[in-house]
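chain below, 629 aa
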Amino acid sequence: MGVELESQDMEDVNFTDYDLVHHVRDALVSAGSGEGGSYHELVGVIHHQPRRGPDEIALLVTSLKALAGAVSYIDNIHHNTLLDSIFGMSMWSYSPDVMDALLELIIALAVSDGKYIDSCLDMLVSNFMPPMFLVETLKQARGLEKKEQVLSRVHTAFHDITNLVPMAASRLSSIVVDRMPTTFKKDLENDRLKFRTEIYVENMLRLESGAIGEFVGSMMLMAVVDMLIELDVAIGWDDILRDDSYKGIFAIELENADDLAADDDDIDYDELPRSLSYKNLGKNIVADLLDSLMVRMFEHLELCANNERLGEVFETLMDSFMLTILNTYKSKFAQFVMFYACALDPENCGVEFAKTLADRFVSGDNPLTRMSAVAYLASYLARANFLSAAFVASILKRLVDWCSEYCKIHNGYINPKGHRLFYSGCQAIMYVLCFRMRTIMDVPLLKSQLLLMPIESILKHDLGALKVCLPSIVEEFLKQAKAAHLFTTSETFIYEDLLESEFSRSFGGLERLDMFFPFDPCLLQKSDRSFIRPNYLYWKNVKPTYGSDEEDSSDEDIPEDFVGTNGQNIIGQGMLVSSIDEHHVDMDEFDYAMDKMSITPKKRGFGFGFGLGTQMPSKLRPSTSPESL
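prediction:
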């Protein structure tokens, strides 16, 4: 094959590819000898021009191919202008034949000399995002072809380079992370910048699942999670807070979302989380980007599950969660990545997540980390409708056993700060049972074990958990416990009222981890609608132990062999609940009216040793309390 080169000083001349390689070599050599005329002509051919005719495109393709055959003659000192022109080329601006010739040159440069590897990888990564002028085109159907033409070639080039230069994989990871777009709110107001950010993350996830994912995948996943967290904490509380004075935790979730945007009427968003507003958040540009990136992450996790590699990805997500999300106090939504990964594989990922959180609480070192772990655990067990009642009961028993041992070791008086781990454990137990007590009680073997757990002795210990934990949780738990006959004694114990006391206000310190329920309903509408809602238990769908035809049922259906007159376990405490094949209970079938929920406490005595006052629950701040607290 040959190509015609046109020059002002000579007539058309035919060059073979071999001749052209020699011509390019001579041009490169001339740059170092001070006779750089042909070298400058070569730079002019490579340098970007907005419009090129067919002959100019052919010359560019041939010159790039010739340079690929002469890379050993390229020197970063004498040929820096040429290298700048090469590394400054955007594949989005060219046709496929130019792209192929350019990548041939980039790969040749990368493998020829180690000093070019970073520049070559950086040039390829720069093509993750399209030029601004192409963004609107790429949003249309015809733009998808162009997008795939570029990105498929970029990722193939990564594979070819890392095959020839193994150390390139570690360098690529660092370059990708360093080049991640910033997420300043003022930048996100430009819709084109937001779109380019989404494409960049798409490429990171493509690297994770691609041919070199074995080498770069973990770092890509952790970097994406870090970006999600960065966006999450950037969402201001002023954008989503509402004034919900004198409403308890369960009442507010049942509240009708009257301020839901009109164009979302097709979505049944009738569960409003504590003091959070869908309408306000829907106008938040940072939340909108976070929502889109969460959707991309969820789709990526589905792809991993379909390819039977969710297990290995989950290990990376678990590491990332423990290192970052678990201790990120203001995280509101990023944690749902873990929730959805567990939903895709409940028997493995779902179980591992709960057990790891329980281990961190029971045997961790940092008190705040342990409190956060048990808050995540309680919220997860309460909300994940894909977890069996038997498994929930088994984890619940670990918490009860830990709290029981704590009571045996510690005596004395109420001390919210000194015994904050204990109160966190107690509140977790009550919170889980508010959501799960009925499903556990519906299985005879699980019911017998729950009745044998020393929950009553823990809550009536001198440490006074009922006076320290969140009043609305205590109130709901006691109401369900009465209906379920969870306690056996009838001695008098007066819990004065449900107002938040000095004890409960000081519990958890400035972070207010006593109010931290990380898996409260997700406000990111696209993420929630398509991925979270089918796997999520809302309060309106909970079937409590009260408010049914069996509300007055007693313990007559429990075999006497299980429970002695003093409440001890006659058959032993070693019952393995996780192996029980209980009846499946579909929580979505239950849609209880609001007037049957525990919203406003009435004056009543529960008949098993606890009494409640007549006042309304205290004002409940968001589960992840704003920094102003």
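The chain has a mean pLDDT of 78. The CA atoms of residues 379 and 519 lie 5 Å apart.
thats it, cya
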